[in-house]
Structures are given as C-alpha cells and as structure tokens.
Amino acid sequence: MWQEIRGGLVTFFTMCYIVVLNPIILTSAPSGSGAFLGGYVGDPDGLAASGIPAQAATATALVAGVMCLLMGVVANFPLAMAAGLGINAMVAFGIAILPDMSYADAMGLIVIEGVIILVLVLTGFRVAVFRAVPPVLKTAISVGIGLFIALIGLFDAGFVSIPVSQATPLELGVGGSLGTWPVLVFAIGLILAIVLMVRKVKGAILIAIASGTVLAFLVEAIAHPAWHLSAPRIETVAQLPDLSLLGQFSLFGAFTKLSVVTVVLLIFTLLLADFFDTMGTMVAVGAEGGLLDKDGNPPRTKQILIVDSLGAVAGGAGGISSNTAYIESASGVGDGARTGLASVVTGLAFLASMFLAPLVSAVPYEAATPALVAVGFLMMTQVAGIDWSDWEISIPAFLTIVLMPFAYSITVGIGAGFISFVVLKIAKGKIKAVHPLMWVASALFIVYFAIAPIKSLLGAG
Hints:
two-stranded antiparallel sheet; 62% helix; globular; mainly alpha
C-alpha cells in the first residue's frame, strides 16, 4: 500500500504544474480576440492583467482531482488525469481568436467533443478512427503542439517578442535585448528546470516554478519600481475554493456565431488532439509497470477510455478545457504504483491543492513559462519516431509540425498534414492506402481553408 501512496504522490508532484500552466494558457489569447477567460470572470479588458485567475486554478485542481479518483476507482489503473496540454492551447489560440467567440462557447465545444468520444468508446468506433490516422501523423501532431507550447512560453516570458519595426516576425527579447529582469527570472527558471530534469529529480518542473516565483518576488522587492511582477502579491496562503468558473459553458453557442462547417472542424480538431493521446499513454504507462496483457493491451481498457472520455465532458463543464491522461503517470509507476490506489492518492492531492489557489495566482508568468518550454521539449522527443527518409510520410509530418508554431494555429498544422498525406498517396498511386475517414477529414479541411472564398462566391460575405 505504501508504494501506491508514494507513487501517487510522485505522480502528483510531476504533473501539478498544470494547476499553474492551464490558467496561463487559457488567459494567453491575444487581446481583442473576444471575451475569453480573463474577461469572462470579471476582467472587461479580456486578459486577467493581475495574473493567473484563482478561479481557473481552483477549477483545474477540482476536475483533475475528481477524474483521478474516477480512474482509480472505476478502472483501477495507475493513470492520472488533468487538463490536457495542447487541448488548452487549441482552445486559447484556435478558438478564442475567432470573431465573437466567448469562453462559454469554447467550453461548449469541449463538452460536445467529450460526448462524441464517449459514444465512440461505447460503440467501439474509437479504435477504428485511431487506426485510420497514420501513426506518423499522430506523432507529428504531438510534436507540433510541443513546439507551439514552447513558442508560447518563450513569447509570454518576453524572451522573444514582436518587433516594433515589423522588420522580422519575431526578435530576441524586447528591442533585440535580453537585458530585463523578467527575462532573467525566466532564464534562471528554465536552466533550473533543465538541470533538475537531466538529474531526474522528481517534481523538477514544480521546483523550477516555485524557485522562479521566489526569485521574482526577491527581484521585485529589490528592483522596485523598475520592474513589476505580472502577478499580485500574496495576501493569504489559503482560502475557501472559488468555484465560480464551474458550469460556464454554452453547449450550442458556437453554432450561432460560426458556420456549421467551421464548428464541425473545430470539434473534429479537438477530438483528434484528445483522441489519440490516452491510447498511447495508457500503453506506455502499462508497459512501464508490466501491466499489459499478451497482446500489449492494459487491463480494463474500456473502463480507462470511458473515464478518459468523461474527462473531456467534465473539463468543458468545469470551464477549464478537456482533461486527459498524463504520461507523467509513468513517474509514479516507476516509483512503485501498480493499482488505482495511486490515482486515488493523486486525486486527493489535487483536491487539497484547491485551497491553495492564492499561492497559484501569485505565480508570475516569468516563473511559470519555463515549464512550457520544458514540456515542449518532452513532446518534441517523439520526433525520433518519424522515418524522415520516407518522404511520403515525412513531408506531411513536417508540414504538421512546422505550421502549428509558424502559422500560430494547431488546426492549420493538422489540416496541412492530412491534406498533404492524401495528395502524396494519390501521386504515388496508393489511393487504397488512404482510409475512408482520412478522405472525409481531408475534404473537411479543404473546405475549412477555402471557407472565405466559398462564402464570397455564395454571397455570404
């Protein structure tokens, strides 16, 4: 039992950075992109200028805690869940920037996507769709999202910025200089995270965030008023959880503001990002603990996938984006976790963290964003699984990966990868190698890319 408790705590400390990072990502949508998280919970200017909203941190911890408990009790598997990195980026940078979209509308799409995935699990269709998308594109999507997350971290920290002269798309630091206190805090935090990760210190990312926060407050105290934190000072360490973000979703709001094709593609894109990770994660975690059967499948696979599907519904209804299985669960399994008790322990730790929202809201961007770069690296390591000598698959993978950060759109990256994959198969005379679902998806993406001229031709503006 003790190894389960220890393993559950290790998993918590290796993934609880999400309580800080999820609100950061959800509040990072460009200003003027609609009433997103900051504006929805009381900031009329759109972004929570005072730092990470405590409501989002509390809701992130609550939903993660509940889903981990469900995974432990229902599936009896040492797999922890929390708001998915990548999905939250899609919400902030793929949906929030659309005209007239609100935070509630975006969360409604998450709920719909979760319900669809649940139906696909119950009907057995999820495995069929999983097999339809080539493995190389699944890998490329994850790698591309990793690069996108890293770029967000570098930009939010001020390590790169948009030059005033517009001579280049981005430049190093502000005005070409890294000589600012926020960048110093970011750089030290990133170096610390990297060193601790290389030394395999459990909770490396959390330690780096905490250390960066302490350093930021010290710099603020010494350099004030020359530099200001991007978050408020700590007025209290603990308080009763603020649950006002729960239930902030509009199930069909997006349909009143966007075309049906656009909404369908957005849901499809969210589904893709949510769809494949858990299947790979549960196999990887199961392999780490020797929990797979002779066919390489974890026990109670259906129960695991059902709980995972409910994570998307709960995340959307909770106002903090889809929850999914975390590969960090492997750290707990590596420390002895073998049963669902470990997930229960992780869930209880997340629930306890709800009462520490004031501490979370005091973390400045400069201290938290090194974690984005570090997680981006972890996701980038999967690029080794792509056969770059086979141009039929490596070119679509390349387009998927580079267009996510370069076009600042995860949807564009996935669409380019799908379409180029089908085009190259046609060019090589391998039409039968393309799954029917890939044809459908690619056709939808073509319509998505051409929606503006199509509307113009139809006189829809």
